[in-house]
Amino acid sequence: MIRTSRTAESVKVTFALPLDLTAGRCSVVGDFNEWLPGTHELRRRGNGTRSASVTVPKGTRLRFRYLGENGNWFNDPDISDQDGSDTVVVV
């Protein structure tokens, strides 16, 4: 699930997943963090999810995937737009 919060020039993008979707550590990896695993690790929240946020300029096209334990790459289950094997969202 992707949630956004906008200001006049930027967008805070929150990537959130249910805790039970993947076991162990998980991070969101994409063109906004140079595809570096662990840069935006999803942290456990009290509402039964794990999430991480980034702030980008309005109109940014984000390509990303999630990386779970043992090299398990997967896409956001709530977004159908893809570019190759990557999930894509424009904020």
In brief:
The protein contains no helices and nine strands. It is mostly beta strands and 91 residues long. The chain has one domain: Immunoglobulin-like (Sandwich).
Provide a descriptive summary of the structure in words.
By secondary structure, the protein is mostly beta strands. The chain has one domain (2-90): Immunoglobulin-like. 0% of the residues lie in helices and 49% in strands. It contains no helices and 9 strands. It has strands at 2-6, 10-18, 27-30, 43-44, 49-57, 61-67, 73-74, 82-83, 86-90. Strands 3, 6, 7, 8 and 9 form a 5-stranded antiparallel sheet that branches. It is globular, with a radius of gyration of 12 Å. The mean pLDDT is 94.
Topology:
Layout: E1 2-6, E2 10-18, E3 27-30, E4 43-44, E5 49-57, E6 61-67, E7 73-74, E8 82-83, E9 86-90
Antiparallel strand pairs: 1-2, 2-5, 3-6, 4-5, 6-7, 6-9, 8-9
Weakly predicted, low-confidence segments: none
CATH fold field value: Immunoglobulin-like
By DSSP (H or I, 4+ residues per run), the number of helices equals: 0
CATH-scheme architecture: Sandwich
Major pleated sheet: 5 strands, antiparallel
Overall strand count: 9
The general outline is: globular
* Total domains: 1
